[in-house]
Design a protein that fits this description.
Layout: H1 2-6, H2 10-18, H3 23-29, H4 35-47, E1 51-56, H5 64-83, E2 90-94, H6 105-121, E3 126-128, H7 136-149, E4 155-158, H8 164-171, E5 177-181, H9 196-212, E6 216-220, H10 224-236, E7 245-249, H11 254-262, E8 267-273, H12 278-287, H13 289-299
Parallel strand pairs: 1-2, 1-8, 2-3, 4-5, 5-6, 6-7, 7-8
The chain binds dihydroflavine-adenine dinucleotide.
Length: 302
Amino acid sequence: QALLAAARSGAVRTVVERAPLSRDVVRRFIAGETTEDAMKATERLVGEGLMVSLDVLGEDVQDRGQAETTVRNYTALLDRLAAAGLGNRAEVSLKLTAVGQALDEDLALDNARRICAAARTASTTVTLDMEDHTTVDSTLRVVTELRRDFPDVGAVIQAYLRRAEEHCAELAYEGSRVRLCKGAYAAPDTIAFQSREDVDKSYVRCTKVLMAGSGYPMLATHDPRLIDIAGALAVMNDRDPESFEYQLLYGIRPNEQRRLAGQDAQVRVYVAYGAEWYGYFMRRLAERPANLAFFLRSLAGK
Ligand code: FDA
């Protein structure tokens, strides 16, 4: 929590961005800065039997010009995926704050619609990432709107939210792609469970609802216990392996990614790339003390 709060400070951002970061630390979680880097990572992962969701890094844009740049970055990426014939194995993940949500919800909706249209042309799909708790209602409204024209748009539910189970029940319908994650942002006690145990219990309740429903669950976690529980619930609900998928982040538990894929499960790796790595990188550090220690050692040049 403290690290997530510090991450919002401009001073901390300057220190972290200007620090003589060992490239290895950032590169552990981020596929690179260019579309070329992202394509190489995608081709490698697809070659290993994995699927991919690509995130062009950037969030919280404050003007229309930046939002337009995000749209152009995504459409250029989708053109590349189409040209490489990777549309059936690689989709994109989009943050609405990167296309103007903080300025105007309708602007974000229109921009997201343009990206969904480009994804359709590339024979692939878009999942809308879920961000800070203040954006949840707006993002779910945009998902509902987009699904009128693009029913395959993926939604994300964060299990740490007290309303997560209710949201899962609403979204567990035929054709509905739903990513379930624990939640990576700081949120107050009135809105979100705070203890690891409560978040994990909520994750299990949500998995039960999604697996019992008729939608397409996407279980996004590295937690070995939750991955096992999801597998058991799939069996209990007579789900075949094509009716759900596991999702893990690029650079985290890569052996587990391959192990699951080797057991005929569908596994998608979330691949983030681009120059705007700060927010994403800080959330990964906050998730695990070992990552923070690794980072601090690299700052000290050790
Ligand atoms: P947890 O943090 O409890 O970790 C369980 C185990 O996984 C750890 O013991 C460790 O072994 C390993 N592990 C976890 N994180 C690690 C790390 N950073 N480095 C190394 N090992 C690590 N969040 C959100 O708010 N909105 C979103 O849209 C998304 N989208 C998303 C997509 C995908 C594909 C994933 C996997 C995750 C997200 N998240 C997210 C992030 C999510 O909310 C959560 O913060 C992280 O996945 C960490 O939680 P775990 O479920 O992995 O469990």
